[in-house]
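User: Working on a comparison across species. This one is Iron complex outermembrane recepter protein from Algoriphagus winogradskyi. Can you predict its structure so I can line it up against the others?
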Amino acid sequence: MTKNQYQFKVWDHSSITPITSQSIGSSHFFYHLSYKCNFVSFVLVYNIIADYFCIVNLKTGILVSVILLLGHTLYGQDCKLSIRGKIIHLENNEPIEAAYIWVAEAEEGAVSDQNGNFTIKNLCSGSYILTIQYLGHKTITDTFNLETNTYSKTYRMEEESLGLQSVEVHGHRDAVQTTTAVSALYGENLLESRGENLGESLKRISGVSTFSTGNSIAKPVIHGMHSNRIMIMNNGIRLEGQQWGAEHAPEIDPFLADEITVVKGAETVRYGPEAMGGVILVNPAPLPTTKFSKTSLNLIGASNGGMGNLNLVHVGGLEKVKGLGYRIQGSAKRSGNIKSPGYFQDNTGLSELNLSSSLGYSSSKLGVEAYYSLFHSELGILNDSHTGNLSDLENIIENGRPFSDGEFTYEILNPKQRVTHHLAKLKSHYHISESWKINFQYGFQLNHRQEFDKRRGDLNEKASLDLELFTNTLDLYVNHTHKNELSGTWGVNLIQQANSNIPGTGVTPLIPNYDMINVGMYAMEKYSKGPLEVEAGIRYDFRNVNTARYIDNELRTADLDYQNFSAFLGGLYHISPDLTFNSNFGSAWRPPNVNELFSEGLHHGAAAVEIGDPNLESEKSLKWINELQYDGNKTHLEFTAYLNPIQDYIYLNPTGETYVSLRGTFNVYEYLQANALFYGFDFAGSYEFTDKFSGYVKGSIVQAKNTGDDSYFPFIPSNRMDWGVSYSFAKDSDPKTNKITLSNVLVAKQNREPELDIAAAPPAYALFNLAYTKQINIGENKMNLGLQVQNVFNTEYKDYMNRFRYFTYDMGRNVLLKINYEF
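Assistant: Here's the predicted structure for Iron complex outermembrane recepter protein from Algoriphagus winogradskyi:
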């Protein structure tokens, strides 16, 4: 008998929740575990689920099973045909796990895995009737003839209304439909990341690192790319802020998310030019459509910086208005000066306040949702990054740390930045028919960024950089999904932006005022049959940018047009229920951003002078990404390899020069362009040694070369690996979390660095972290407790991807206490 010849499912008696899917070699069984009785009961399933019968003696049960196995094997030993299939939702193509499949004539069945796949083997030729059932969905019956080949088909299940009060029904949320490499942060892993900014949270995913400015500002990096090459989707709306700066962190509160998904491929066809390096989807849970009430409270405290973080979320559904649901969320965060081993970093405090609300209605035909979020933060910029003269700058770089030890305070002084981001969304979908759905989405965003420098007198209270960015987005698209193998999306996307410098700063604007319009049209089609998925798409974008700025009382304007096609072809194949391979080849492009074209002066938040080039061309790339994934009973493995040549790659290069002014001495950077080759791989794996003891490992290697002169680019992540072991204290009969984890982060020295840099790359480092998590039930409510110790040994280190590594070491030991209470 081969593994996965027949399917069975393990259930927890106390909660009727499936624990796992396995395989045995007999007629279809449901295999039940009973913790209280300490015995195993077998349930034989024929055309309908038979009455339960128990075999109290485990040895006797095994003997009976062996007899059945041998009998069935002898009966079907000459039958080698099989049925393979995939089960997905009709509405959004999301796979359905734990659907029940039954072939009456063969008295054989299966249960779909997490990817919606199932296999039934060793069948004889003949006519069969296949039945598929899943709670809350219409039963599917398929009659077919099995001759000499494997029968393979994709089944799309349609939802139906059920009057079950114990079933929680949620509203509409589109699935992530892509054949490229996808990783997600959710559940226990997302809960453990609470209190961190978006960039730090995503470092838990292999292939994702951060580009930071100090300890409070971190931008996610995917396969060596960040900023305008990575698109962040906030509840379905592309986040539009002043994200071109290294110290411009995403204006988003991770507490919004029920799941954070990272798409590692070039996704310009699906999302537009800014997605050439990947996409990050920050999605809240779908709104409830029935009577429902749930409140979650998060309290987080940290020793380093004296950080306190409070978050409160309430989700509800109305009984009187079926289909109407709402969510209200708010969070506040406050921290003081960060401490490196041995000293405090002056002026590194943070203050943050975030709010969001959603209201939605969903029925069988129509869905409408309104959403609003406010993000407001004020954070200090390390005092020692702003030096008085050239010798001070050279001395602190040589010293590698501030000359004074500083002190702890919550006060935030200049230099600092203050950011307020408003986002509003209105979305609706309507089912024209069973197979066709039309979608409309409008988004409005206002991003107000102020950066304050050290200045004399009244000017110290005025922002040196004061920008307002207005963005309107409009999406109109149709989805078609059919009961056969085809589905697709066709749409139009419109983006309008206006960016303005607020007068009164007393400083020549770093970037000009500009207006931008982008129109995109795209089409994507997907073919799914059994274990195979093939997807292709094409898109055309046109962009116009108008700029204007006064320099030395002279008005300078520019009118620029950019246009290009992008396309992709991808496939995913389930080699077996445990093994999946996917490959995606896509073209991508990105027009230069206004800052890359026209920056001219001091960028206060970055403590650097930046010089743009108005003659820059659009970036054009071809990314080929492949992923192999294995999910066994105790083992999970995934390996991702990619190749990404980029023509006219734009990068910010340190010139090695300094700029001296009345406001201090600053390093000078310039935007350059060259042909590039990015390549590398990510790996991740976990293994359960015993029911109590498990381990994991993950890592990434990124290579990026200037193919024009065979040199290296600045600010490319160095090789890194993260491994850890966990021990669970929970009893076999107790499903609640109760475990301790020891982990180690290893980061190599970046030996692939450009010749011109202000200081050599810092040495390699290793950090140890410790975490303990425990779940406690309080009546019908649930409390999760977490204790984390980061940098256990208070190691002194610098990360190459931190732009303030020239002036200071990174954060020292940090002890965090996290409480999550759901009621």
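For your comparison, note: The chain has two domains: 6-157, 182-398+430-516+527-822.

User: Helpful, thanks.
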